[in-house]
Design goal:
The complex is a heterodimer of chains A (about 325) and B (about 240). With about 325 residues, chain A is mainly alpha-helical. Helix content of chain A is about 70%, strand content about 5%. Chain B is an alpha/beta fold. The longest helix of chain B is centred in the C-terminal third of the chain and has 16 residues. The chains are: A mainly alpha (about 325), B alpha/beta (about 240).
């Protein structure tokens, strides 16, 4: 049982990062009915942005007291979010808005997104080449700090990721359901011309949606960088999975993206290892295969995703 | 000075000229009806007034100020509220949220207006927490009108409020429109149901393929042979 719980923790850790990135896809899809394939680079830039801020504050190998650690994490999340938001905002301005003005076909947006994605990834490589495959300053050994909750061990870094991701998701959920900004986003997503008749500025709302999605993606970049590594090509794999998670939960549905992300992380952690795990049968190397097989199966049964309502309308 | 002056507007969809120089005016406190067959340009005219479309030529003045080319989301701040064709309620928001959306231009919804809307449409009060997409057609129309009222209109644009509704509901809706007008709101209504609309309207304009072909007071138009032949044929036959 404790083994199982450990996998749940592992799953939640990955899953909450997928969920944060998936929210960026699903939010933009909601208002524009298009997949922002450059979102992977928003995530990547969040990692770089927060790295630059944190390494200027913390020296490698230092071991600050706990309240300083909390401060560093908030700083990292904040700077990652700001970088991600700024990149996502510019992306909308440069890669999407001009096309929208001209009423370009959906395919043009896709090509534009891929172009922007390559550009950002290569730009980061050029600017920060020396940082490739680097990791965040080890201001304290995150993996060594282990908390024991009734026999279940959670490392500090896992706890940070899970808690901060859940807090951000809760915040987003409240923002979307309770505030005027949230209502404007939902209005544009449901019926943009009518939302405009209510006095909602569609362009501004789209911009803000990119900013919110970008902030979450950028913060996820910081968390990912803290837990693993970061490089200018780090965005691709986690983003493909997050996109899959968004589809799994029902693209366009905010709670669906959260659920899909957590679920995908969980499936990845549990399926290859429990309970039929035998060395040499299905090992962790099969993680990606298992995750996507499950995705395919769910979509065969429910093409609109778990919480999705109608894919038909969007087309 | 009229509240709304539409001066020789031409509106195009690509190469197609949907409106070929339409002019009319609406005085403060009036109900004006735009009549015509499908494709005559009634809806396009309303959309142009509410800022959803921009005229290629011509001018629109509201309260003496030009509003052609001003985008819809800023026009509502002047008190032009549009109940669009097909109601267009937000299906996945509750009735209460839909009404809140109507008051989006204000910091917070005016509770007096909300109370009045519920007084006019008790059905909406009953279904306050229900998702708008699950309402019947008539209830959605009531919601769409209620939502527009939340924006405190000076000029209310109604696009075919009777479309697809049972005669009893149509009568209710028209009674409400009369009540709204009596409270001082100017109304520009688009209708295919000419008898109902002209019974309500002070004046009317008949559109045909993007041009105004007839105009006059509601009674004059009701009595006009051409109007009777073209738009009232069915109603005369059945009544």
């Amino acid at each position: 049982m404790n083994d199982f719980m450990n996998f749940v923790i592992l799953g939640l850790t990955r899953g909450s990062m997928y969920a944060l990135i998936a929210l960026g896809y699903t939010l933009v899809y909601g208002v524009l009915q298009l997949i922002n394939f450059a979102h992977s680079e928003v995530f990547m830039s969040g990692a770089f942005g927060s790295y630059l801020v944190i390494q200027s504050v913390v020296t490698d190998g230092s071991s600050p007291p706990w309240f300083a650690v909390v401060g560093i994490i908030v700083l990292g999340l904040g700077s990652g979010a700001i970088t991600g938001a700024a990149v996502a905002w510019s992306l909308e301005r440069v890669a999407y808005r001009p096309l929208r003005r001209r009423g370009a076909p959906k395919l043009a947006f896709l090509i534009s997104a891929i172009g922007a994605s390559f550009f950002l990834s290569q730009l980061a490589g050029k600017l920060f080449n020396r940082l490739n495959n680097n990791s965040f300053p080890t201001y304290f050994n995150l993996n060594k700090h282990v908390i024991d909750i009734g026999g279940v061990t959670v490392s500090l870094v896992q706890l940070i990721i899970i808690v901060s991701a859940l807090l951000m998701m809760l915040f987003l959920d409240l923002l979307v359901s309770k505030t005027k900004l949230g209502r404007s986003i939902r209005g544009v997503a449901e019926d943009a011309p009518t939302a405009a008749l209510m006095g909602i500025d569609i362009d501004k709302t789209i911009s803000r949606t990119f900013v919110i999605g970008g902030a979450l993606g950028g913060a996820a970049g910081f968390l990912f960088g803290t837990a693993f590594f970061f490089s200018n090509t780090m965005g691709f794999i986690p983003s493909v999975k997050a996109f899959a998670a968004a589809v799994l939960g029902g693209i366009g549905n905010i709670r669906g993206a959260m659920l899909g992300g957590l679920l995908l992380g969980m499936i990845e952690a549990i399926v290859p290892t429990f309970p039929w795990y035998k060395p040499g049968f299905i090992g962790t190397a099969w993680t990606d295969v298992v995750a996507f097989v499950v995705l395919v199966l769910v979509l065969i049964v429910r093409p609109s995703g778990i919480l999705g309502e109608r894919l038909g309308r969007a087309a | 000075m009229s509240l709304l002056e539409v001066d020789d507007i031409e509106v195009r969809y690509g190469a197609i000229r949907a409106l070929k120089g339409v002019s009319f005016n609406v005085e403060e406190g009036e109900v004006v009806a735009l009549l015509g067959a499908n494709g005559a340009g009634k809806t396009t005219t309303q959309k142009t007034v509410s800022g959803m479309m921009t005229p290629a030529l011509g001018q629109i003045r509201f309260d003496g100020e030009r509003i052609d080319g001003v985008p819809a989301h800023t026009l509502i701040h002047r008190g032009i509220c549009h109940v669009p064709e097909g109601r267009r309620v937000f299906p996945r928001m509750s009735v209460a949220e839909n009404l809140d959306m109507g008051a989006f231009r204000f910091k917070r919804p005016d509770l007096h207006v909300l109370a009045r809307v519920f007084e006019m449409f008790p059905r909406l009060k009953e279904r306050e927490t229900q998702l708008a997409g699950t309402l019947s057609g008539g209830e959605q129309q009531m919601l769409a009108i209620g939502r527009a009222l939340m924006g405190k209109p000076r000029l209310l644009l109604l696009d075919e409020p009777s479309m697809g509704l049972a005669p009893l509901i149509v009568k209710q809706i028209f009674d409400i429109v009369r009540e709204i007008n009596a409270s001082g709101v100017t109304v520009l209504i688009v209708e295919q149901n000419a008898a109902q609309a002209l019974g309500l309207a002070n004046r009317g304009y008949v559109l045909e393929t993007g041009e105004v072909v007839l105009s006059g007071s509601g009674q004059e138009l009701l009595a006009d042979d051409r109007v009777r032949a073209a738009y009232l044929g069915e109603e005369i036959a059945t009544s």
